[in-house]
Amino acid sequence: MAETDVFHALANPVRRRLLESLRQGPRAAGELAADFELSRPAVSEHLAVLRNARLVREEPRGRHRYYHLEPAPLAEVSDWLHPFERYWRARLRDLGALLNEEHPAP
């Protein structure tokens, strides 16, 4: 199977929630599935997309599969977002200056 684009993987809210769930540490697939009103096979499909995007890795432990967050591919997203962050930071600074002009601090 071809590698999944990180942006495509992150486009789905279920996959974003799965990644958020893994921030605290590895979790079993069944444990992750219990957090959703989806069937286990549906959650497994989302985990497969995240695995193909290299955002998670799977570790077999007996009959269970544990998933670990692999944050390195998120650097690509961070690099893409960085110019937008600077844009909004400048806009918020301008808004703050305008508000201070209209309502100066006593």
Write the topology of this structure:
Blueprint: H1 6-10, H2 13-22, E1 27-28, H3 29-33, H4 40-52, E2 56-61, E3 64-69, H5 74-102
Antiparallel strand pairs: 1-3, 2-3
Helix pairs in contact: 2-4
Organism: Streptacidiphilus monticola
Keywords: DNA-binding, Transcription, Transcription regulation
Domain HTH arsR-type: 1-89
What do these coordinates show?
- This is ArsR/SmtB family transcription factor.
- InterPro entries: ArsR-like_HTH, HTH_ArsR_DNA-bd_dom, HTH_MetalResp_TranReg, WH-like_DNA-bd_sf, WH_DNA-bd_sf.
- Residues 1-89 form the HTH arsR-type domain.
- It comes from Streptacidiphilus monticola.
- This protein is an alpha+beta fold and 106 residues long.
- It has two domains: 6-69, Arc Repressor Mutant, subunit A, CATH 1.10.10.10; 73-106.
- It is built from five helices and three strands.
- It has helices at 6-10, 13-22, 29-33, 40-52, 74-102; strands at 27-28, 56-61, 64-69.
- Strand 2 (56-61) and strand 3 (64-69) form a beta hairpin.
- Helix 2 (13-22) packs across helix 4.
- The chain is elongated and about 65 Å long.
